[in-house]
Amino acid sequence: MASSSQGLSLAIRGLALVLAVATSQVASAGNWVGFMNVFANASGSQGGYIFGSGWGVSDLKTTISNSNAGTIIGDQLVLEPNYNTYTDSLGGSNVDRAYWTNSSDGGVTPGPLGNKWMNANTYEETASIAVPSYTLSGNVTSNTLNTSLYTAKAFIKVLDPSNGYATMLDDTVILPASGPFVVTSDLSQYQGLLLQVGFSMDGLNANPVNAGTNGSVGVTITAVPEPSTWALGGIGLVVAAVLRRRAGR
Asked: What are the φ and ψ backbone dihedral angles of 119, each rounded to 5 degrees?
């Protein structure tokens, strides 16, 4: 959360998390935008939805090691579980620690594990689909992710802005241990709607002391439809809109 952690912490203390949206939370890295959906922890699985908001890409714990202007071809990303919510809570109140960690004493001391299910989305988007199909492909260049705790996916999603940003299409593939991945979507029925293309990381927010065992996934994007720049045309139009909806959860 970084620069937005103070505002979010106040929302937590007020128990109004579902309304916790700060305009400063929309941030991008190159072509990429970050959005986090937060769910209750249901005994280590995804529980009920709590809130969603735009986050800085690095705050999701996505690292962009290479980003090319005007295209995502060749972009290199490293995806990890989220750590800053756990870390930020340590400097907060008992309520913060009890909320974000599995504290057994009401937050007097933090628990050893995280306490919220996080759906972190790192994606590029366009405001108005104008092509009949889209293919996202690439290679997994490294993968040490603990797949018993976390799931990393590549996705193509379509949202309808005129219908509360309802998800109209959600094509995903779990990233493999290594080698190529591809997601292809038929967009012929969704012309003019909002397109999101990218990656997600699902699992509990994590204690950074476990970063080594939790692992990460590195990907390089190798191809998108030609012309490669078409999908960036509407990105400036949707930055303000990103806070008005949950990113493809």
From this structure: -115, 95
Residues forming a β-bridge with 79:
62, 217
CA nearest to 150, candidates 195, 206, 188: 206
Quote the CA–CA distance of 180 and 139 in Å, as a whole number: 4
Question: So what's the pLDDT on residue 30?
Answer: 58
Yes or no: say if 49 and 39 are a contact pair by the CB < 8 Å rule. yes
Triad 111, 115, 119: Cα angle to 5°: 145
What is the C-alpha to C-alpha distance for residues 44 and 191, in angstroms, rounded to an integer? Answer: 38
| Residue 142 near residue 79 (C-beta atoms within 8 A) | no
- In 3D, which of 78, 47, 22 has the Cα closest to residue 204? 47
User: In 3-state terms, the chain is what percent helix, strand and coil (to 5)?
Assistant: 25, 40, 35
DSSP type of residue 148: T
| Domain ranges across the chain | 2-244
Host H or E run for residue 58: helix 57-60
- The mean predicted confidence, pLDDT, of the chain is 83
Does the pLDDT value for residue 211 go beyond 50?
yes
**pLDDT for residue 56:** 95
The two tokens of residue 231 are: 């999908």
- Which tokens in the block code for residue 57? 């890409």
Residue 231 has pLDDT above 80, yes or no: no
Cα–Cα distance for residue pair 41/38, rounded to 1 Å: 9
